[in-house]
Every structure is written in C-alpha cells, then in structure tokens.
C-alpha cells in the first residue's frame, strides 16, 4: 500500500512555504518564498507586511510544491499547517488555507507546533524518533528540550530574553551588516580573532538550562564608539564565540543530566559552522553523538512541518477545524509546561 500523502504549510514568520511529503521519507515537493529582502529595509520582520505577503504568495507556493511532486491537491490524504508559535496574523494565513483544503476535500487537518517542526527536523525521514536532547536555536527561539519520544517532550530551559538568532540579527544591525544577521556575522567572524574582545557569557554558570543573550548584545553596543570597521571581524568572532560557548556548555550539560547520549540540533543558527564544530567536539569528548538538521531544513520551511505532521499521523493524531492559532509558546507541546 502506498504511504499517505500530506501537504503542509508554514507561514509563522517571514517565509511562505509549502511541502508535499509521502510517508515520513519522501519529500516530493518543497517550495519557499522568502520575504527576507522585503523586511531587510526595516531591519526585522514587520507582522502586517508578513501576513499580506503570505496571502499574496501562498497559492503560487502551493502550486509550485504540487508541481514538483507531479500531484494535485485532491490526492492529498491530509493537510497540515503551523498554528503557533509565530506572528498571529501570519499564522492565520497558512492555517486558514490548510483548513480550507481539508474542509473542501473532507480530509484530516493537523495543527502543527512550529517548535516541534524544528525539534524533529534532525530526524527527517526516520519513522522512529530516538530519545535525545534537543537544542532549538532559531531567530525566535532558543530551547533545550528532552525528547522522550515523538509527541512527548519536556522543556528544560529557554532564553529569558533574546533568542540566539535574534542576538545575531541585532548585532548585525548594530554593525551595519544587514538582515538576516547570522550568515553575515559568521562570514565577518571567519577572519576575526575571537579572543580580542572577551564578551560576557550570560548565565553560563547559572546552574539551570536558561539562557540570556541581551547583555551580550548590549556589550557590543557599548563597544561601538570605541571601534572602527576594521575591528568588525574581531567583534563578530568574539560575539559568535560567546554565544557558541554558552550553547555548547548547556546542551552537553543538559544531555548529561538527562542521561541522553544524542544531541539533536535544529533552527537557523544551527547552520553556523563554528557552532557545529564546537558542539561536535564537546559531544565527542563527553561520549555523545550529535546530529544537525540538513541545511535546507534549518531555517523555516514546510518540509519539517510536514514531517512533524506525518509523525502525528503515525500516532493517529489530527486536529479540529475549530482549532485556534497559538501565537505564544505556551501551546501544549511540553508535558511539563
Ligand atoms: O529557524 P529560523 O528561520 O528562524 C525562526 O524560526 O525564528 O532561523 C533564522 C535565524 C536568523 O536569526 C538568522 O540570523 C539565523 O537563523 N542564522 C544564523 C546563521 N544562518 C541563519 N545564525 C548564525 N549563523 C548562521 N550561519
Ligand atoms: Zn523557525
């Protein structure tokens, strides 16, 4: 028997994305329209601009994903969309469209948590999700999660202020490096000396799994009047090292304390080569394995939402068409939250 076909939509922030997945493995189509260049002029995502662009581009993105798959909407067995966390007006666009398809074709609808999409993305393709320590580092979130099994997660800690990617974006803005800031800061850091500016490691030794990155951003801000553009590589390298140092320390510690020997890393910041290198080395020293999401699955995309939805279908989970969006993280993803 053929594995079920699923169409998933992602519109939680500034990417309009659609994906077609067969079973848990076969990504038949994946299309993303990024609005990054539109928001770049503002130095960050403007919610109303984002939702209006989702509305304008969603149909074309869905058509593109279906065309790649060589399939039509009416052969889909289920429809999924990110319903939170994210920008409320942006989430409504994808969720309403997926509900409309489900209603018109009398198929199940699945409301998917964006964090779960990231969290499971390192396992994309696998039918079974192993127990692991999940580190989600994106523009909106920095979380340490105990992945007990698919659908069962415990929140261990998260950022109390800026997310790791947000800190990269804000520092890039301070240094005039453009948006999104992560890739620009990483490129600038490549020829910098990471020891010249010893930036603070906020909450590194706090004894818990919470993070704080806003002090780090403020340190960069106070340094600005004292430096020239020639110092930028050293500032970027020092800043990047400070973030990586805290993330690596806490991820390994959290894995140890929760007796996990696998660390699964996801989200846009997991594209960072220095983070990949430092975490791989620290995990190796601690006798743990580390896996990263595939680069195309790190930043926002609908394939990871489709995969999380496929995992939910394996557990016979579906959602009501009356399901609301949940813009904040308090959605019922974590058993202990
Ligand atoms: O996962 P994502 O699309 O965002 C949210 O879901 O919130 O990731 C985007 C974030 C941005 O903050 C971007 O600056 C950061 O990921 N990012 C990076 C790198 N590439 C993207 N941060 C550090 N180094 C990178 N190479
Ligand atoms: Zn995301």
| Average residue pLDDT | 95
Q: If helices are DSSP runs of H or I spanning 4 or more residues, what is the number of helices?
A: 11
Q: Helices and strands: which structural class?
A: alpha/beta
Distance between the termini: 39 Å
Give the total of domains: 2
Considering DSSP H and I runs of 4 or more, what fraction of the residues is helical? 40-55%
Low-confidence stretches: none
CATH level-4 homologous superfamily of the largest domain: ATPase, nucleotide binding domain
Which small molecules are bound?
5'-O-[(R)-(carboxyoxy)(hydroxy)phosphoryl]adenosine, zinc ion
> At the third CATH level, what is the topology name of the largest domain?
Nucleotidyltransferase, domain 5
CATH class of the largest domain: Alpha Beta
The secondary-structure element order is EEEHHEHEHEEEHHHHEHEHH
**Cα Rg:** 20 Å
State the strand order across the main sheet. Answer: 3-2-1-4-5
Number of strands: 10
Provide tags for this entry.
337 residues, alpha/beta, Nucleotidyltransferase, domain 5, 2 domains, 5-stranded mixed sheet, 11 helices, 10 strands, 19% strand, globular, binds zinc ion
């Amino acid at each position: 028997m053929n594995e079920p076909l699923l169409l998933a939509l992602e519109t939680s922030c500034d990417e309009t994305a659609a994906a077609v997945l067969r079973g848990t493995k076969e990504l038949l189509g994946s299309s993303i329209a990024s609005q990054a260049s539109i928001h770049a002029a503002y130095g960050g995502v403007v919610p109303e601009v984002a939702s209006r662009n989702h509305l304008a581009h969603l149909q074309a993105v869905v058509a593109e994903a279906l065309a790649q798959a060589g399939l039509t909407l009416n052969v889909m067995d289920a429809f999924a969309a990110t319903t939170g966390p994210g920008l409320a007006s942006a989430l409504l666009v994808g969720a309403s469209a997926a509900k409309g398809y489900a209603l018109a074709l009398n198929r199940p609808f699945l409301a998917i948590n964006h964090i779960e999409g990231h969290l499971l993305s390192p396992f994309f393709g696998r039918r079974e999700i192993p127990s692991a320590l999940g580190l989600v580092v994106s523009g909106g979130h920095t979380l340490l999660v105990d992945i007990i099994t698919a659908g069962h997660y415990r929140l261990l800690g998260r950022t109390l202020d800026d997310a790791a990617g947000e800190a990269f974006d804000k520092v890039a803005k301070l240094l005039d490096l453009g948006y999104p800031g992560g890739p620009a800061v990483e490129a600038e850091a490549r020829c910098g000396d990471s020891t010249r500016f010893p930036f603070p490691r906020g909450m590194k030794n706090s004894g818990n799994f919470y993070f704080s990155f806003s002090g780090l951003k403020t340190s960069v801000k106070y340094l600005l009047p004292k430096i020239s553009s020639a110092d930028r590589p050293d500032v970027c390298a020092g800043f990047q090292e400070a973030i990586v140092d805290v993330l690596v320390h806490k991820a390994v510690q959290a894995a140890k304390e929760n007796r996990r020997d696998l660390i699964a890393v996801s989200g846009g910041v997991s594209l960072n080569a220095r983070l990949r290198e430092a975490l791989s080395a620290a995990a190796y020293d601690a006798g743990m394995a580390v896996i990263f999401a595939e680069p195309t699955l790190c930043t926002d995309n609908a394939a990871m939402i489709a995969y999380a939805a496929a995992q939910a279908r394996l557990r016979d989970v579906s959602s009501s068409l009356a399901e609301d969006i949940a813009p904040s993280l308090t959605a019922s993803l974590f058993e202990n939250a």
